């Protein structure tokens, strides 16, 4: 009997710690222009930070270490990670592709943050989310305070299209890359979505000279931090160097051994760089 009571008491003692960990974030859906956008919120600060995932990505697949760890480094920030329309848990609708896809995401992101009562916010955009972030900062200048661009460029070059084409067969992906997406979408829909993404890149190359947002980049006034993995085989150095040369007062940093998802591989270094940049005057 004594052992049972001690066991029960032990469970009660550890319960608050479990509850604190479980409820350190809030996940909900917000209706934005008729679309139910899935978001994850953490932190309690007055300032705002939006995390924008990459191709097919969601808040959890692309920014889990940031959701879990950044609030401690940024106590004056409310951190919001979203699933863009047609991605993750922001389905329906199906993802709508076309040359305006990133512009549509940028407008939706600003509308989301405005609806949340946080019309002024900073951005961390990774990969495809980085393109959306560039467009948001260059279009909605009064809304975006600071911009952090990770593994993304203002335009596409043929070698990048070739690199993505080489990844078209998802059966050749490592399990760590493939399985989270299969869990999120189901194996069949994941294959469809990924092929739609690669086809979209071809469309940009053929119909828009690979241009995502050169015009918007020229208009960015927000302080900007550009981050690149030096061993990124998907994003070439040239488009990211373009950002460094065309955004006023942009800072540039490379992870020497970083690949495309360096923010997941070098979590502590990445989070510290982000925090230092956002907290600086």
Verbal overview:
The protein is α/β, with parallel strands linked by helices and 281 residues long. The protein has one domain: Rossmann fold. Helices cover 48% and strands 19% of the residues. It contains 11 helices and 8 strands. The protein has helices at residues 2-22, 59-73, 101-115, 128-139, 158-165, 175-185, 187-207, 214-217, 237-246, 262-265, 267-279; strands at 25-32, 35-42, 47-52, 77-82, 121-126, 144-150, 224-229, 251-255. The chain has an 8-stranded mixed sheet with strand order 1-2-4-3-5-6-7-8, with helices on both faces. Helix 3 crosses helix 4 and helix 6 crosses helix 7 (187-207). The protein is globular, with a radius of gyration of 20 Å. The relative contact order is 0.13. Residues 1-23 have low confidence and may be disordered.
